[in-house]
Amino acid sequence: MRCTECGSEIAENDVICRSCGAEIITVAGNSAERDAFDDVESVDTGKTKKNKKKSEKAKRGFVLKIAAAVVVIAVIAVIIVNIVISVKAAEGRRLFDKVPLGRDVEKISADTGVTFLDGEGSIYGALNYIADYDYICESEKSAEISGIQVPEWAVLLNEDGSGSVNEAVLYNFSVLKHNWMGIKNEAKIDTSVVEFGMKIRDAERAVGLKPYTIIKESGENTTTYTYRYHYTDEADGNNCVMNLYIEVSDVDGQVKNVYDEKLDYLNLILRGTFSGDIS
């Protein structure tokens, strides 16, 4: 160690230079202590950075868990809604399937265990407006479609001239999912996907739709299923509303005919209703 004034060698414990008498100024702590302090500070800084990274990673993990939980809840909600819709539609369908044609309404009421009201007995004006019927049984719960209140389902009966019921119609309004135009489809459904001889369940899988009306007639020995959907025409950008009809033989339960119809959207709006011709 040397004196900062004269450069002479001095002892490590000297406080005055023996050559020039200058006061020796020392830096607090020796080099080993300073190195040790630097090492500790470096370790502490490393730990702090490592802990910060762990904290940030934990936060990201928590956010991802929350996001995953939200997605799961949304999926469950969709599943529950679809189940509820299916159950609601099934109530009317079970009644409809029990209705025997060719009998008077008293006998049908006795066979099904429900009371059919005569005349335009629906409490919903819209249903009385869009359908002609002699007797009706409808859901106690309502559904709202494009701002119009209707029953979730309704079974309508029509008589022939002799007092026998020759036609039964089921409306499953719940499957329209709040939109009179039905399900949004990517494009027009090719009717050729439904082959003659198919069972109705296979036909429904092919088109990917559920019926919103079902009609059975004693004179024709057929049941007609109507499916409502809409799509955007790529050529002109207009919204097209379609009814797809599948006729099934009551004898063998196989598809005997399939066709579709484009609904006149403007005419329906002017008429103030959301139903096309179901006959």
Secondary-structure topology with pairs:
Blueprint: H1 31-98, H2 105-112, E1 117-118, H3 125-130, E2 135-138, E3 142-145, E4 148-151, E5 153-159, E6 165-172, E7 183-184, H4 200-207, E8 213-217, E9 222-232, E10 239-249, E11 255-262, H5 265-271
Parallel strand pairs: 7-9
Antiparallel strand pairs: 1-2, 2-5, 3-4, 5-6, 6-8, 8-9, 9-10, 10-11
Poorly predicted ranges (pLDDT <50, ≥5 residues)? 75-89, 272-279
Average pLDDT value? 79
The helix fraction, in percent, is 25-40%
Structural class by secondary-structure content: alpha+beta
Radius of gyration: 41 Å
Outline the biggest β-sheet: 9 strands, mixed
Multimerization status: single chain
**How large is the share of residues in beta strands?**
15-25%
Number of strands: 11
Shape designation: rod-shaped
- Helix segment tally: 5
Distance between the termini: 113 Å
Written as H for each helix and E for each strand, in order along the chain, the element string is HHEHEEEEEEHEEEEH
Task: Please give the domain count.
Answer: 1
